[in-house]
Write a structure and sequence with these properties.
This protein has about 160 residues and is an alpha+beta fold. Helix content is about 35%, strand content about 20%.
Length: about 160
């Protein structure tokens, strides 16, 4: 019988540590519109705030109805972008199980480490314009579930504008 080898879909843990930037997309198991009220999104933003603080990263985020985009930016050598998402998913997974048992996260998530300021700028523009592409708003500033933790979103984007 032929052995099928699978390659890991994540880079080694140390690649997510330190002064790096990484984009993550987390999806709900069933694509139901869940992140649709300020009350729900505020709960998840607070969990994201706790996770990013614990892991020493600044984050920009966009909560779409059935998925979440984040970009974590390391603030020092002790930063751990991957761990921040793992902590966030664990804590919010428990919250979902307790408060909304029919909703859960997909087991895994998509990630990408950005290797240049140009790539970071491109991903950040993609993140904030997701609601515009979806037809939810005409300008990303109108979407209430996009923001920053540890950064002022408009300043963050402005600093990246030459790229």
């Amino acid at each position: 019988m032929k052995t099928i080898r699978t390659k890991p879909h994540r880079l080694p843990r140390d690649r997510y540590q330190g002064l790096i930037s990484a984009a993550f997309t987390l999806r709900l198991e069933e694509p139901v519109p869940f992140f649709t009220t300020q009350e729900i999104v505020d709960v998840f933003v607070e969990h994201l705030r706790q996770a990013t603080s614990e892991c020493h990263v600044n984050t920009i985020y966009c909560f779409m109805p059935e998925h979440v985009h984040t970009i974590a930016v390391g603030t020092g050598e002790s930063s751990d972008a991957l761990r921040s998402i793992e902590v966030f998913k664990q804590n919010t997974g428990w919250w979902l199980k307790t408060n909304s048992p029919t909703v859960s996260w997909q087991k895994s998530f998509w990630d990408r480490i950005m290797r240049s300021t140009y790539e970071l700028a491109s991903k950040a523009r993609y993140l904030v314009n997701n609601p515009v592409r979806r037809g939810l708003v005409k300008d990303w500033r109108q979407y209430p579930f996009t923001g920053g933790i540890g950064v002022i979103l408009e300043e963050f984007l402005s600093d990246l504008s030459p790229f």
